[in-house]
Write a structure and sequence with these properties.
By secondary structure, the protein is of the alpha+beta class. The protein has two domains: 156 residues, Methyltransferase, Cobalt-precorrin-4 Transmethylase, Domain 2; 45 residues. The protein has five helices and eight strands; from the N terminus they run αβαβαββββββαα. The strands form three sheets. It has a four-stranded mixed beta sheet, with helices on both faces. Helix 2 links the parallel strand 1 and strand 2. The longest helix is centred in the C-terminal third of the chain and has 40 residues.
Length: 216
C-alpha cells in the first residue's frame, strides 16, 4: 500500500483540529533512535499507533516538531532521519510488521523542519515487541489512550483480536452460543425438577392434613 505524504497544510490542520488520541500524537521535537533509549521510544510510538489503527480502520500519525500551544505551531526538529533505517529497526523488533512511512523533510517555514510517522491502517492486530530494546521487553505491547501511551490490557487484547472483522469472532460466538444454550437447557431442567418436587410436597401436605409449606 502506497502511503501518501502529508503536506504542511494538512499537518497543521491535524494539529489544530484533532486532539491527541488513539491514532494521533504530537511531539515538540524528534529524538533520533541512535541509542537504545531512542530506539525504544520510536518503537513504542509506532506500536501504539499501529494498534490504534487496527481499531479505527484509518491511518495514524505522530507529528514531530509541532506544538499547538505556541504561535505558528511549528517548533521544528533539530535532526532529520532516514526512513529505511527506521523500517529496518521496526521490522526487526515488532511482529507483525507495521506498514508505515517516516519523512522528516517537511518544510515548516522559517528554516524549520517537521517530521511525520505515518502509519497505514493495520490489518493484522495486535503488534508486539519481540526483542528487548532499551526499556522495552520482549512480549510487550502498547496502545494510546487520550494523550498518553500505556501497555495493553485484557480488554484491549479482546478488542484487537475479537473485533467485528476478526476471523476469530465467529468461532468465539459459536462456542459461546453453544455453551449458553447448554446452560439454559440445564437451568430449564433443574427448574422443571424443582417444580415437580414442590408439587409432590404440596400433595403430601394435603393428604396428611399438614400446613402448606411445612414439608419444604
Amino acid at each position: 500500500m502506497e502511503i501518501q505524504r502529508l503536506t504542511l497544510a494538512q499537518i497543521l490542520d491535524l494539529v489544530q483540529t484533532r486532539p491527541e488520541q488513539i491514532v494521533f500524537d504530537t511531539k515538540r521535537s524528534f529524538r533520533p533512535p541512535r541509542d537504545d533509549a531512542g530506539r525504544a521510544e520510536f518503537i513504542k510510538d509506532a506500536v501504539a499507533v499501529a494498534n490504534g489503527t487496527a481499531l479505527t480502520r484509518g491511518p495514524g500519525f505522530v507529528i514531530y516538531g509541532v506544538d499547538s500551544k505556541v504561535p505558528g505551531i511549528v517548533t521544528g526538529i533539530s535532526e532529520q532521519y532516514d526512513d529505511a533505517s527506521l523500517q529496518q529497526l521496526v521490522a526487526s523488533c515488532v511482529e507483525p510488521v507495521i506498514e508505515f512511512a517516516f519523512y522528516s523533510d517537511v518544510d515548516g517555514g522559517n528554516g524549520k523542519r517537521v517530521a511525520v510517522l505515518h502509519v497505514a491502517p493495520s490489518s493484522k492486530p495486535f503488534h508486539v515487541v519481540v526483542k528487548d530494546v532499551g526499556g522495552l521487553r520482549d512480549g510487550t505491547s502498547f496502545i494510546r489512550q487520550g494523550s498518553s501511551t500505556r501497555g495493553l490490557r485484557r480488554a484491549d487484547w479482546m478488542r484487537l483480536c475479537l473485533g467485528k472483522e476478526s476471523p476469530y469472532l465467529a468461532q468465539v460466538l459459536q462456542q459461546y452460543g453453544a455453551a449458553a444454550a447448554m446452560t439454559n437447557a440445564q437451568t430449564a431442567r433443574l427448574n422443571a425438577n424443582q417444580q415437580a418436587i414442590q408439587m409432590y410436597l404440596r400433595q403430601m401436605e394435603s393428604m396428611a392434613g399438614l400446613p402448606r409449606g411445612s414439608l419444604g
